[in-house]
Amino acid sequence: MFPLKTHLFKKLSQSTPSTSTSHSPSLSLLADQCTSFNQILQIHAQMIVSARIFDNFAASRLLSFCALSGNLNYAIKIFNNTHQPNSYMWNTLIRAHANSTSPIDALNRYKKMQRMGVLPGKHTFPFVLKACSKLRRAECCVQVHTHVLKHGFDFDLHVLNGLIRGYTVLGDLAGARKLFDEVSVRSLSIWTTMVCGYAQNRCANEALALFDQMVEDKVEPNGATLASVLSACAQSGCLDFGEKVHVYMEERGVEVGVILGTALVNMYAKNGAILLAWKCFDGMLEKNIATWNAMICGLAAHGYAKEAISLFGELEEKGVVPNDITFVGVLSACCHAGLLDFGREMFESMSIVYAIEPRIEHYGCLVNLLGRAGKLMEAEEVIRRMRWNADVMIWGALLSACKNHGNIEIAERVVKEILALDPHNHGVYVVLSNMYAEVGQWTDVSRLRKVMKKESSMKTPGLSLISGDD
User: Fold this and answer.
1) Is residue 53 part of a domain?
2) Minimal CA–CA distance to 258: which of 232, 283, 235?
3) What are 320-329's pLDDT values in tens digits?
4) Residue 81 is part of which domain span?
């Protein structure tokens, strides 16, 4: 075995093996002070030799370290060899499963806990609800809510916060708001969860209205609340509200770290206030890749293509590693500026230099770039070489380029692809018909109009639910 750190080893060697559990707290303390799995293995061995492992308090400390440090399988072995595990041990495993790549195990563990007659507590439900959220199982969330009521935890703010978060993550904002409104004395966490829930579900107006109510009720928002409100302002285009939030932060001396600073940059950039976004960006002492992305994408979206590409160069000079979102911004900037060669180079560098596999958004930017430059055959080849099936948006970008460059041959193929994905997309018939008309192919125009008329007559007629009789 690897040696424990010297001070821990001395403490362990001073503990005499005994069948008594009177000294188990000292071993438990050592378990809490461990920094590696090898140290835990030595303490576990000492507990087995001294029979102290039969003390559930001592065993729970070992299990907690293993479960929450990534050694979940070992934690399960400790649990399975524990006679009558206590609720803390059950909760620890449920929490570890909920945070793992297999959250279904958290729900299975919770079911087994019930079968064994172990009562859940206020620390059980938030982790079970987290598992429901990760699995996107709304019915599980409702069932857990029923259990919360059954066990009398419907007045516990910690549990209620978990329920509200569960409902918002699953998109049931009505259910979340109903719970929120029923809480008579709300904690800051509950206010924040509801505001964040609205913002994350793109209900910006509701998020801003609730924030207004929060401030009126004299509840001081925290960083998470403010970041969510700024995100809502970015989504909804509420620049005025975003500026008021910024003033509110300055008046109360709110410390602007990376998260809030990035939220401000993103809010100003999305609303087109590029100078204010740049001022916030430039004033930040610490930035992460999300900060750089907010500024680069904001510049690109509002036509400042050269500035976006220049900022990308600065990012590389500072040794900041770009991610897939960075390249969406850079490729978008290349489209606006018509920088075909540089755009191709950036697209290639994603996988070669940065080991980032291009996603469908990057291919969309490349197709748009090639289409604008008139490289229609190359754009079509790019789409057909993609590992994913192209969506209507990508084929639509190519069709638009075909229209701009008058390439009927490729346009006809593209229209077939779009109709295979969306058979009722009559807009593509109109585009192709107009292209035929521009070059005088009136026979084809007439043929398309007949097809459109036939398609229109095949539509299911609308039915009124209102009776005409009195």
Assistant:
1) yes
2) 283
3) 999 999 999 9
4) 1-85
